[in-house]
Amino acid sequence: MPASLPGPTVGVVGGGQLGRMLGEAAAPLGIELVVLDPTPDAPAAQVATDQLVADFDDADAIRDLAERSDFLTFEIELADQERLDEVSEATGVPCHPDPATLALIHDKLHQKAALAEAGIPVPPFRRVDDADDLRAALDELGTPAMLKARTGGYDGRGNVPVESVDDAESAMDAVGGPAMVEAFVDYEREISVVAAQGDGEVSTFPVGENIHEEEILREMVVPSHSPEAVLEEAEQVGRDVLDLLDGRGVFAIELFEAADGRILVNEIAPRPHNSGHWSIEGAHTSQFEQHLRAVVGWPLGATDLRAPTVTKNVLADGDGSRPARVDGVEEPLATPGANLHWYGKREARPLRKMGHVTQVATDDESRAELLASARSLVDGLSFE
Amino acid sequence: MPASLPGPTVGVVGGGQLGRMLGEAAAPLGIELVVLDPTPDAPAAQVATDQLVADFDDADAIRDLAERSDFLTFEIELADQERLDEVSEATGVPCHPDPATLALIHDKLHQKAALAEAGIPVPPFRRVDDADDLRAALDELGTPAMLKARTGGYDGRGNVPVESVDDAESAMDAVGGPAMVEAFVDYEREISVVAAQGDGEVSTFPVGENIHEEEILREMVVPSHSPEAVLEEAEQVGRDVLDLLDGRGVFAIELFEAADGRILVNEIAPRPHNSGHWSIEGAHTSQFEQHLRAVVGWPLGATDLRAPTVTKNVLADGDGSRPARVDGVEEPLATPGANLHWYGKREARPLRKMGHVTQVATDDESRAELLASARSLVDGLSFE
């Protein structure tokens, strides 16, 4: 598609940190961003042209957003597929990715079933509506296993490890609704591929290694330490997943690299993702710029690694909600190759993602050295 | 100074492309920007928290700006030194750099005299109030020479080359006011050092080579092709200039590298400068982030080169003023290592700076190859 400047206006459902980093990427490209988010002064509002303060499923507000935009997209899975479809149809403003991908991904059981049906490798899984279902499934899949709420889970919420059949009742109570259970994968590491579907072209970022703790993604190491064959296979799986999804945009495909070298899809996010934040400094094009290019139909950018890179999330600690304030920022500011990213959230809550630090190699530092630096820098931050 | 997040709010006098790129750099750091500019919807307004629409010397507006800010700075020499001094004094909101630097730099004769007095090498110059003065000066300095308006010139406006003593009258008419004349320097190349004065520390960026045409800076090549001794001398001159100036911030020092290897200061800008735009992709810290760090008293960032880099300005062509619209953007978007920067100006006017393209090395491209690429990409753009 012919590209001209000034660029188009993109309406984004969701105005959190992903929207903020989309806004940071939009300005140099001459793309304007308008975001819709129910929280006034949302993180993205501070860099977007404007914010509409409204719920994610507010049909009138989504229509207002469309009328101010040349393209619609979303940065949160809570975006409402039906409203987006209706508004896009009524206004003629295209939405990328296709809202249908939200429906596919929203329900983890549907997501896994669609992947399996397309021949994409996933861990064995079963639908689970009650404790009897779960016990039957565990008989087949073995224990331990992971019980997952079909909808609404994120950052580990809605995921309940099940150690034995005896835990079936309590696990079902904990997950609290329609669920699926997945066989435990004996994995070497968790990795992810961030991939973009553009206008007739596909591009993938170098494969990153993800380090979780308490089910929350904490650290990303790029490139992953995986063997070359695994990296190639992961990239191919990423491309296969894109074939299955409709519409343009960036998708993150989280994978298990099994101990036996197999690649299994864990989850898909139909948007830029925490596991791709490293790309802001580590790649020639960031995942946020890439998403915007894809959504508006511009050529995709080069995704080569600029240098080995580690990103570590800054999570709030302490109890309860309080105004966000972090001390100890001198060290990350003064460390060569360290890059601070603050999301502009007004309130800190335990384990809330408040920002991240990316440590990029400036010399010939090993990935272990980069990780040690990022850990030391983030550990030195303190929430008041 | 202890640094904490969220960062401070910086009030910026001026809201052009420099303010816009300051805003792009501010968001990840958790720094908020408020800009003051007489043009509604100025380039910086699109990324700043807010814009005050007012003249640069509007005392009430500058006071409003200060009251919303923790620090004041400026991105345009038209900022009013006296107003800034008064407001900073009255409100206790510090202004960096010290507004006195504006007075020093505003008048090119004062600037050169101060540099000469400090022992910093400059081309021979004379004060020129009328054609008789000019003829007398040319007798001493020889021809050709450069007649410069003492105040108000930029992008070559106010600079009049004088080929012979016979041109004295017409040159004085062209420059139209108090002036100075400088001996012609037989230079090998024009180079510049972007340097930052932080809170007790000084940092310089790698020396860049500047290619002018019709007195307008068109292209920057980094690092400069200068011999190593010249690069070291240029950096030292940059540090000497910072010693002379008060207050924190980024300064650009434009230099002549004379054919005999001497370094002579051409001009100083007390702010981020066109010759430092390459640093956004080419250095670990951009000049805009560095300016913000310096102004708020945070540690300065690493300025090492990430890769050889060339930047070429995108200047509007054609006649008269018209809505800004550029076609042919596919190529820069699709070229690996090319980065598009659009300033968001609503109107195109001949030779107005509308954006720039930075070509960073992705492999082992030579600087000549990078320059050829940047030229080809910018030549392929067309203003409607």
UniProtKB/TrEMBL annotation, chains A, B:
Gene3D superfamilies per record: 3.40.50.20, ATP-grasp fold, A domain (3.30.1490.20), ATP-grasp fold, B domain (3.30.470.20)
SUPFAM superfamilies membership: Glutathione synthetase ATP-binding domain-like, PreATP-grasp domain, Rudiment single hybrid motif
EC number: 6.3.4.18
InterPro entries named in the record: ATP-grasp, ATP-grasp_carboxylate-amine, ATP_grasp_subdomain_1, PreATP-grasp_dom_sf, PurK, PurK_C, PurT/PurK_preATP-grasp, Rudment_hybrid_motif
Enzyme class: ligase
Domain of life: Archaea
Metabolic or biological pathway, per its Swiss-Prot or TrEMBL entry: Purine metabolism; IMP biosynthesis via de novo pathway; 5-amino-1-(5-phospho-D-ribosyl)imidazole-4-carboxylate from 5-amino-1-(5-phospho-D-ribosyl)imidazole (N5-CAIR route): step 1/2
Pfam family, any one: ATP-grasp
Keyword hit for Membrane: no
GO biological process assignments: 'de novo' IMP biosynthetic process
NCBIfam families: PRK06019.1-5, PRK06019.1-6, purK
Record's subunit section: Homodimer.
The protein's role, per its UniProt record: Catalyzes the ATP-dependent conversion of 5-aminoimidazole ribonucleotide (AIR) and HCO(3)- to N5-carboxyaminoimidazole ribonucleotide (N5-CAIR). Catalyzes the ATP-dependent conversion of 5-aminoimidazole ribonucleotide (AIR) and HCO(3)(-) to N5-carboxyaminoimidazole ribonucleotide (N5-CAIR).
Protein name: N5-carboxyaminoimidazole ribonucleotide synthase
Designated gene of the protein: purK
